[in-house]
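Sync notes, pocket subgroup
Present: LS, DG
LS reminded everyone that the earlier model was apo-only. Rerun requested with adenosine-5'-diphosphate included. Inputs:
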Amino acid sequence: MRLILLGPPGAGKGTQATTIATEFNIPHISTGDIFRYNIKEGTELGKKAKSFMDQGLLVPDELVVEIVEDRLKKEDCENGFLLDGFPRTVPQAEALDEVMDKMNVALNKVINIQVDKEILVERAVGRRICKGCGATYHIKFNPSSTIDQCDKCGGSLYQRDDDNEATVTRRIDVYLNETMPLIEYYEKRGKLTAIDGQQHIDKVAEDIISMLRSGK
Ligand code: ADP
Ligand code: ADP
Ligand code: ZN
């Protein structure tokens, strides 16, 4: 299964990606996670990406495309992959088409998680992430059982630097301007399926999995 998760910041891409990746036994590839890892490790890539991310802007296409291309060539992607947060611009989508053509593989589905703009800010600002295992929580909608501590590994929870109201608002605008055109891009190619992302986390997962299993 070769899948893309599309949706605005806070839509629930990362949350759903964990479930889908486990269900279909495919690697979850999040470009945001790759950048955050590089920032933490202090790499050149991390240094270049950080200023864009802190401002809520997109990292330039040429930096992103190269890391995704390298990642897709790894052995664990042979039977499929789940892209989360990539592509985010039309040039990225075109580059991905080229890379997949060269690899002689085709995309199965683009899953568009739909959530109203008003809800997104509250979701992103209340997001907390585990330092140990990367699990995602929400202070109100999906809290851990002990405050600031991960249920899965006991790690401490943190808030992303870019999950403040001003930066989230900017990221949503960037999504509307630069990423929304991908909906039409994939619709035209017959790849797009919309999912109602405003339901309970488990129901969203159920809808996605049954859609993928039925192939509709
Ligand atoms: P994205 O990767 O699209 O930015 P996340 O999966 O990180 O989104 O989710 C953003 C925040 O919203 C997280 O705190 C997550 O726990 C919460 N969340 C995700 N899905 C739902 C949902 N269906 N209902 C309520 N909160 C959700
Ligand atoms: P969210 O799921 O909340 O939208 P991500 O973790 O996917 O956030 O992305 C965080 C930031 O990383 C983005 O605001 C952007 O600066 C950068 N980023 C991630 N993926 C891409 C991409 N495909 N193209 C450009 N920038 C990206
Ligand atoms: Zn954890």
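DG: Strands lie at 2-6, 28-30, 81-84, 109-114, 127-130, 136-138, 157-158, 192-196.
LS: Residues 163 and 194 are 25 Å apart (CA to CA).
Action: DG to write up.
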